[in-house]
Design brief:
With about 350 residues, the protein is mainly α. The chain contains 17 helices and no strands. It folds into three domains: about 140 residues; about 60 residues, no CATH class; about 110 residues, no CATH class. Helices cover about 70% and strands about 0% of the residues. The protein starts with a helix and ends in a 7-residue tail after the last helix.
Length: about 350
């Protein structure tokens, strides 16, 4: 079945489903809409494959894409069919008729995967043959090496470190811009490249917001704040250390170069170092007073210094009204404290690099 015929089937099936769903069936409507978007992606991909020409990179890309789409469509079909049967909106005849449409899409994808696999094998053999030198024709040998197809480039990952956010976004969008992808497809690729806090944040999106624009907006709000990025870099400098048992210093050199570049690009000056260390030396109770006074989650150095005494008076009032047991819970853990010795050493070694 051709891509155009599959597209017509999906349009007919979607109209039929939405026609029987009521106002209380919003979740199922969302699933139907998502499936329609994925099926449009299938037909678009099949048309691109039919149009050609194909090379090794395109074959590998389309194979990965179709396999992902097949898995996702099978899951959506199962959820939609289960809902329609349990809600008794379908008769058994309607169920089997709709199941036939689902099967035609699955068969179309599997057939395309089989053809792509065969074409990829053929192209790979041709590339190997072209790269094999021939002793009798040295000029042809030189020309054949230029026919070797370069490997595909892996997408970058992002773990929630604010200092690395803009570099990740720029690299990710630059690589994906080479392909004609829908918003949902871009979202799917983005989700696979996230780990840690960033992954948890995007996973919290509602069904109706499963698109690249919503995910990007959420990540921007969480990780693109410049002050958070600056604090993250300074924290990285504090943690930077060369293991005395290391065989070489290459890992340290790599991390130091990255941090130095981030310090420059984020315009981190001496005042910001003072601001960071003063802020990190405070317990949560004192911080909350400064936040309340300045109405900022991370007050500037001037705001900290200007409001120290007022914050201290509030902190003392708070402490005097608390039991000894509660007081103990507010004491800053020693593992989070910045020692005076380290503070002095840091400013002696690092801060002279910058203008204060």
């Amino acid at each position: 079945m051709s891509a155009s015929e599959l597209e017509q089937l999906d349009s007919t099936q979607e109209s039929s489903l939405l026609g029987v769903l009521g106002e209380s069936d919003d979740d199922c409507k969302v699933l139907v809409s998502i499936r329609s978007g994925k099926r449009q992606s299938v037909t678009k991909t099949l048309k691109s494959i039919e149009k050609g020409p194909l090379d090794i990179i395109k074959c590998e890309f389309y194979l990965d894409k179709l396999r992902d789409l097949l898995t996702e469509l099978n899951s959506l079909d199962e959820k939609i069919n289960s809902f329609m049967l349990h809600s008794r909106l379908w008769s058994s005849v309607q169920y089997h008729r709709e199941a036939e449409v689902d099967e035609k899409y699955s068969d179309g994808i599997r057939l395309a995967i089989k053809r792509l696999t065969r074409e990829l094998t053929r192209l790979s053999k041709s590339a190997v043959a072209a790269a094999t030198p021939s002793p009798s024709t040295p000029q042809e040998v030189h020309h054949s090496y230029h026919k070797i197809t370069l490997p595909s480039i892996e997408l970058p990952y992002f773990d929630g470190n604010p200092a690395a956010y803009h570099k990740f976004v720029n690299s990710f969008e630059s690589l994906l811009s080479k392909y004609d992808l829908s918003s949902f497809e871009q979202f799917s690729y983005l989700s696979k490249q996230l780990t840690g806090p960033a992954k948890k944040l995007v996973d919290s999106l509602a069904l109706k917001d499963l698109n690249y624009e919503s995910a990007k907006k959420l990540l921007d709000e969480a990780f693109s704040d410049k002050l958070s990025q600056q604090y993250s870099v300074i924290k990285g400098l504090c943690k930077l250390s060369l293991d005395p048992n290391a065989r070489d210093g290459y890992q340290w050199i790599s991390e130091a170069r990255v941090l130095e570049e981030q310090v420059r690009s984020l315009d981190i000056k001496g005042d910001l170092f003072v601001q960071y260390f003063l802020w990190e030396s405070l317990c949560d109770g004192f911080k909350s007073q400064l936040v309340s006074i300045t109405n900022k989650s991370k007050p500037s150095l001037k705001e900290i210094l200007d409001n120290l005494f007022e914050a201290n008076n509030r902190f003392m009032d708070l402490q005097s009204n608390m039991s000894e047991k509660t007081k103990g819970n507010l004491v800053k853990q020693s593992s989070n404290a910045v020692s005076v010795c380290y503070f002095q050493r840091f400013f002696k070694v690092v801060v002279p690099w910058f203008e204060i």
